[in-house]
Specification:
This protein is mainly α. Helix content is 77%, strand content 0%. Helix 6 runs antiparallel to helix 10 and helix 7 runs antiparallel to helix 9. It is found in: Membrane. Belongs to the PER33/POM33 family. InterPro entries: PER33/POM33_regulator (IPR051645), TMEM33/Pom33 (IPR005344). It is a multi-pass membrane protein.
């Protein structure tokens, strides 16, 4: 489609190139309404997260927290509709639904929608939205022309080069959210049911077929813990606590035995 725009501008020397490119972009967005909507909701998630962390607008920061979660929930719901367009009321459909990453984060948004606001909660949503929005933004930039918005292209390239590190960081946030939730409970800022619901989310993330980083991080944490415990310098008290923690996690789910 970008070749069409370039051809049109070459045949017409009256300076209609930018207008043609703009029409090409709008035409592409209208032809791909779902992808465009996903792009917009992801950008909205990014903006609301930034405004929650840096309250430069006079609105209540908590409202931006909820808007970020709602827009991320809308993104997940729309992505689920893409992946599973035909709803069926049977166990096969339910199993297919539960293995989708979008369903995991739809649950995540519901869990924390009315919870005590923390930046840590929004970080995974922010980073996922940023990564996926960059992909569609590259498509838009290519339609605008090979030399359009070079600075934005360079930023996207640098971000994509760090994609693996970003996904690993998201997985670590997902894991360490559990002790953060326990701290919220002890401080009276979270319900006693929250860790049990979040535990289900965490098991879904561990079993994810598309994103192996949660399993990978659990395995690395387990190996690092074993290395620490096997050192002669490790105090017996610390060694005992580590073993008990590993045994408890292994009892909850076989995550500590991942390889």
């Amino acid at each position: 489609m970008s070749d069409t725009g370039n051809t049109a501008s070459s045949h017409d020397g009256s300076g209609d190139g930018p207008s043609t490119n703009r029409n090409t972009v709008l035409g592409h967005m209208m032809e791909n309404k779902v992808e465009t909507t996903l792009w917009l909701t992801r950008i909205f998630t990014v903006v609301c997260t930034v405004l929650f962390i840096v309250p430069i607008v006079g609105d209540n920061p908590y409202s931006f927290y909820q808007r970020a979660l709602l827009s991320a929930a809308a993104t997940s719901a729309l992505r689920l509709h893409q992946r599973l367009p035909n709803v069926r009321f049977n166990m096969d459909f339910l199993r297919s639904l539960l293995v989708e990453d979008a369903s995991h984060y739809l649950l995540y948004c519901i869990i924390f929608l009315n919870s005590y606001p923390m930046t840590m909660i929004l970080i995974p949503l922010f980073l996922f939205a940023l990564l996926h929005a960059c992909s569609y933004t590259k498509t838009i930039l290519n339609l605008m022309g090979p030399n359009s918005l070079t600075l934005v292209r360079n930023l996207i390239t640098k971000l994509e080069a760090q994609q693996v590190n970003i996904l690993r960081f998201i997985a670590s946030i997902e894991i360490f959210m559990m002790p953060a939730i326990l701290l919220l409970i002890f401080s009276g800022k979270a319900s006693l049911f929250l860790p049990f619901i979040y535990y289900r989310f965490l098991t879904f993330r561990y079993a994810s077929r598309r994103n192996p980083y949660n399993r990978l991080l659990f395995s690395e944490f387990y190996q690092a813990t074993m290395v620490l415990c096997n050192k002669p310098q490790c105090p017996q008290l610390v060694r005992n606590l580590c073993y008990k923690a590993v045994n408890f996690i292994s009892w909850l789910a076989p995550v500590a035995q991942a390889s």
